[in-house]
């Protein structure tokens, strides 16, 4: 009698692998099974691939038109302001209660008007505020020319009086608000 031959279910190659290699092979086989199940359950396994049996779609794009574009205009020129230089300097009272010396601005503020041209700053000084006809009227010097204006009036083309008191006034230059007291000066 002959003994029955033991047959192993694993191929010879797997039988001769070490424990680590068998574990790695089992993980790889498990990943393949999961991938196949994923494809079958997600509907991607038995369907047709779109576009394989259909003729190619040729999409024509319009011919590009080359146009020259100029940079957008900003409207107004931007003026640089020194953030460390105060717009209004308080005038200390002198020994007899009169205002001290008028502060002198240092340097000038210029704005760029495009093309590299610069425009010097406008010097504005509040000379006096007085009552005239029951209303307060300010005398303001703009670049050496005096203007008389009351609340709501525009002077020197770009300045407007917002508020006046007996010694100080609030003005607007364009859309920028500033205040001056008698004898004070500012560059705009």
Task: Show the helix and strand layout.
Layout: H1 12-15, H2 19-41, E1 111-112, E2 118-119, E3 123-132, E4 135-142, E5 145-150, E6 154-155, E7 159-164, E8 168-173, E9 176-181, E10 185-187
Antiparallel strand pairs: 1-2, 3-4, 3-10, 4-5, 6-7, 7-8, 8-9
What does this structure look like?
The protein is α+β, with helices and mostly antiparallel strands. Helix content is 14%, strand content 27%. It has helices at 12-15, 19-41, and strands spanning 111-112, 118-119, 123-132, 135-142, 145-150, 154-155, 159-164, 168-173, 176-181, 185-187. The longest helix has 23 residues, at 19-41.
Give the spatial strand order of the biggest sheet. Answer: 5-4-3-10
Principal-axis shape equals rod-shaped
Secondary-structure element order, as H and E? Answer: HHEEEEEEEEEE
- The appropriate CATH architecture of the domain at 111-187 is Roll
Residue share in helix: 10-25%
Count every beta strand, where a strand is a DSSP E run of 2 or more residues. Answer: 10
